[in-house]
Design goal:
Distance between the termini of chain B: 58 Å
Order of helices and strands of chain B: H
Radius of gyration of chain B: 17 Å
Largest sheet of chain A: none
Shape of chain A: globular
CATH topology of the largest domain in chain A: Sodium/glucose cotransporter
Structural class of chain A: mainly alpha
CATH superfamily of the largest domain in chain A: Sodium/glucose cotransporter
Helix content of chain A: over 70%
Radius of gyration of chain A: 25 Å
Order of helices and strands of chain A: HHHHHHHHHHHHHHHHHHHH
Largest sheet of chain B: none
Low-confidence stretches of chain B: none
Shape of chain B: rod-shaped
Low-confidence stretches of chain A: none
Mean pLDDT of chain B: 83
Number of domains of chain A: 2
Number of helices of chain B: 1
Mean pLDDT of chain A: 88
Helix content of chain B: 55-70%
CATH class of the largest domain in chain A: Mainly Alpha
Distance between the termini of chain A: 56 Å
Number of helices of chain A: 20
Strand content of chain A: under 5%
Oligomer: heterodimer
Number of strands of chain A: 0
Chain lengths: 565, 46
Amino acid sequence: MNGLDYVILLVTILGIAAYGAWHTRGRHTYKTYLKGSGDTPWFVIGISVMATQASAVTFLSTPGQGYQGGLGFVQFYFGMPIALIIIAAVFLPIYQKLNVITAYEYLGQRFDLKTRLLGAAVFLLQRALGAALTIYAPAIVLSKVLDWPLTATIIGSGVIVVIYTAIGGSDAVNATQKYQFAVIFAGMIAAFVILVVNLPRGLTLSDTLTIAGSMHKLQAIDFSPDPGKRYTFWSGIFAATFLMLTYFGTDQSQVQRYLTGSIRESRLGLMFNAVFKIPMQFFILAIGVLLFVTYQFERPPVYFDQVAWHERAAQGDAHELHEIDSRFTAAHEKQKQELDAWVNARHAGNTAAASAARSAALEAHAEVESIRKEARLAVDPHDKRNDVDYIFITYILDHFPHGLIGLLVATFFAAALSAKSAELNALGSATTVDIYKPVFKPSADDRHYLRASKAFTILWGCTSITFALCLSLAENLIQAVNIVGSIFYPVMLSLFVVGFFLRRIGGTAVFCGGLVAQAVVLVLFFTVPDNRLSYPWYNVIGCAVCICVSVLLQPMLKPAPARTA
Amino acid sequence: MTPEPAREEDKTGFPGLRTWRRVYVFVLITFAIWIALLLALTRVYS
């Protein structure tokens, strides 16, 4: 990065943050600070919901996911339209009718204080971890490739977001997310255009798709019934629907976004996401597929995390790594020749030659992939580290003109800040409304709660920065975020599902059901290997366990008192 | 019998999609179209 890149990065990020703080300064009551002014238009709600879910991980890691695994990851979002329709039709009218600030207030009104506290506690625990990941994920990758100090990157980006979120509350989150998303959109469109323009010479769109398809990168839909496969049509439609229901329907970081408007605006904002999220994820994965095809013709690093590669070499494995690198160069060159022969045969209309060249190219590709796996194992013999998060940023730094590099790095930070601000806003709200107010200070005035909300926002900001400084990740970043969610989400969803649909169940039964469900999910996570039961299914199992335990337990308890909603 | 006037919260504000049920059906149709297109991509290039 040069001076121009840094100017673009700093002006974009600091400018939007300063605008958020300035735009919403000093015009708050306790309720508007947490819930916004109540007149947010649907388009802003839609963008805000989308920006909260799409953190930097989405834009940094998903193209790598597309490079490595193809388009299959898009199936994970198949549950989203179904879940958002259920939320718009069932959850939202109840939240609006009860005029709640947090989703967990509903649990208190429907069940009792202990169930409300359980919901809020599970949210705070998993969202605090999520907020740490949100800030750690881009920092670890960008600090490595740009040679920035990791600690300063985490603290710097963390402090910016804490300041404007604490000053402006929910309105500041909405105001900044609009512009942050504009930066993200511009960055990703620019990346797509540059990738298309820089495709290898003579390669048509049809060639690109044929090569990607032959190497299994365009298998967007997989009907396999195997629950050990993470991304299939069935896990997307069933398991991911539960995960999305929980995330959008009960996670305060999302609920708070769409409670800032009227019921009409909130519904339209949700439907905006139901329509556009799948094409957006497809587009980001397609960037990864384009990267994949480009790197079949242009030699990439054998291992994209070059810092880890050189660290390993410095530890005394330089000879072995050099040998792997040399074999990779030869295998990649052979693959390129076979691919050129295939493309030329296709253009000449020679079907027999094209078919033979295709087989040879696929064989050469298998050899290239085998050497890449060797490289991965050489860096980490336990095969826990992954270089896919470094693929997109490597391409950006090697191919983008200065100025656009700054814009793309600003894209990653804008995404991190937009997601993080919504998380901090929600953590501060849930702590004040669901724990501090009912348990510790039930009868203070609004100014006191406003000050408490700001203090808790700052406290959670500092906590998540501290968590982020202690993190160390092996998994692909975006999958790590989703796995953390799947461990804690089943309990949250089941409390709400029982509340909405099983009116005879009382607080004690659902509370016990929730605890049992959480224990079952934790046991599954630690004992059943991921290739036998993939994480999206935890949501279905946890929810089913909670409902069954609640239904079985309720007859043994006193009848639940009649409550509203 | 005169139909009851729609409550404010029941209005979608869209000329072609006046009820929320229609909006949800529209979203599901769009979803089905995305799946059909992705399936076609998978089948054509696998």
